[in-house]
Amino acid sequence: MSAILRLEGVHTNIAQYQVLHGVSLDIPEGGVHVILGRNGAGKTTTLRTIMGLWKSRLGTIQFRGQDIAQLGTPDIARLGIAFVPENMGIFGGLTVEENMRLATHDGSFDTERLERIHAIFPAIKQFWQKPAHALSGGQKQMLAVSRAIIEKRDLILIDEPTKGLAPSIIRNMIAAFREIAEETTILLVEQNFHFAKALGQTVAVIDDGRIVHRGSMTELAEDAALQSRFLSLSLEAH
Amino acid sequence: MSDTSIPFRTRMSAGIDRFGGVMLLPVVLAFIAFVLIGQPSTWATLTIAGLAMGMMIFLMASGLSLIFGLMDVLNFGHSAFATAGAFVGATVLAWLGFWVTGGNPALNLAGLLLAIAAATIFGALAGWFFERVVIKPVYQDHLRQILITVGALIVAEELVLLIWGGAPIPVPRPAVLTGSIVFAGVSVEIYRIFAFLLGLVVYVAMYLVLNRTRLGLLIRAGVENREMVEALGFRIDRLFILVFMAGSALAAMGGAMWAGYQGLITAALGSEMMILVFIVVIIGGLGSIQGSLLGALLVGLMANYVAFLVPKMALASNMLLMMAILLWRPYGLLPAVKR
């Protein structure tokens, strides 16, 4: 499988602190790929660096062969990369419809696609004209993901979508992400190993700003020793 | 859940919201003033004067509120645009003296509108230059923003003194807008009615742009979360320039209107107004046009009522109003960002 995204030796600083120490990663095209790691390991920084929200100091980031490391965030987004941040990035003063409309390139919806999104996340349809700040945490997460897929994207970066969500909503999210992954590539950052295991095809474990393990999710899920070595903190937490 | 199980405060708040919520505050203020003043004709004159003053302050404050809200820029130089607008407007009015003071009402109005247009265009262009040269290097750095914009304000005021001199400049008021009309025993200056109507037109235009266009949608989103707007593929820096130009143009327009209202202007005009403008932006809520309008009307009404009732308290009254509102709603009456 060819890589849609390739990071090589990426170093990123936040202020005077170096957070990423040479992250190298290949994300194959299609399916769900997961970055796991404990708090502060560099997961969010990796996603934000890919998105251009924090600039890498060294290294290359290639998307479909094009170096995007020094591109501005809007230019990266226009290449077909969507981002769902940890805080969901919902515009609370805008209605659900306005949030969705903003994510379209010309302000108009593809009706068929919108209906599919409504089928995946019925709450989006139900609260279409409500201000987004009035939604619950789970509904906001659904809106954030819906916004990312309102138009066809090649790659969606999603940062800890299960954070603070109830188990029933997480189950719905798993089903939704499986459906979304049929047409696009998802790079997911997670701490919840059970959620990651249910979705991921490949996995990379990051620790102290370095990739310490790469492989298939099946291999990690079946190997207790590997889990214990790389994810003991995460497994204990969940 | 029965109604009685809902706390009284929540029920009262919901009831007030049904009738307009905080938008009722100017009405409440006007009612209290009516009781205290006692004379309906005086109260009506003061109310119309307050509304007109409020609308002119709104013109100056709305742009600053958007600049604060969207760009997170503390622009203490905003008043320079009001001053520049006042002087450019006054100069154009003086050039068009025959049009403005002659007996043809159409030419009177055309002269005034040309003066306002010249001030507004000058404000937009000066705003573009100011954003590129002064503001752009200090994005994300509030301390430097304060220092450099205060410095720029001083330079701008000195430039005004250099060009127009230190003596107060008389501003010719269009003949058609001089004098008053008397209705039901209430005397109202025509210029104030014009100022109120112009402010209303600008508010409606801004409301429509912000709520009915894609550009407005982007601005409202940018006020809440600049980073996410960029992550959706939009160049926020271009939006910044546009909003800064619009905010500066509005301040210049407000300055030109204020010049006509005052009749005599000095280089300190903008700085004198700035306290009221900042109060409006703070009590209205950052980034909110409705909030700016509400705050401006409250400030205009309060200034006129208190100037009549307790003249020495005129400025202090608005400070007290700001303190009271911030104690009640720390983010202002109608903040753009919903927390």
What is the count of DSSP helices of chain A, taking H or I runs of 4+ residues? 10
Largest sheet of chain B: 2 strands, antiparallel
Our measurement of the CA-to-CA distance between the termini of chain B, rounded to an integer number of angstroms, reads 26 Å
- CATH homologous superfamily label of the domain at 3-87 and 158-237 in chain A: P-loop containing nucleotide triphosphate hydrolases
Oligomer class: heterodimer
The greatest inter-chain interface is formed by: A-B, 24 and 22 residues
The termini of chain A sit apart by: 32 Å
User: How are the strands ordered across the major sheet of chain B?
Assistant: 1-4
Note the overall shape of chain B. Answer: globular
CATH topology of the domain at 3-87 and 158-237 in chain A: Rossmann fold
Give me the count of strands of chain A. Answer: 10
Summarize the structure.
Chain A is α/β, with parallel strands linked by helices.
Can you give a write-up of this model?
- The complex is a heterodimer of chains A (238) and B (339).
- Chain A is 37% helix and 29% strand.
- With 238 residues, chain A is α/β, with parallel strands linked by helices.
- Chain A has a domain at 3-87 and 158-237: Rossmann fold (3-Layer(aba) Sandwich), CATH 3.40.50.300.
- Chain B is mainly alpha-helical and 339 residues long.
- In chain B, helix 6 packs across helix 11.
- Chain B is 74% helix and 4% strand.
- Chain B is built from 14 helices and 4 strands.
- Chain B has a domain at 41-267.
- The longest helix of chain B is centred in the first third of the chain and has 32 residues, at 40-71.
- Chains A and B meet through helix 2 and helix 3 of A and helix 9 and helix 10 of B.
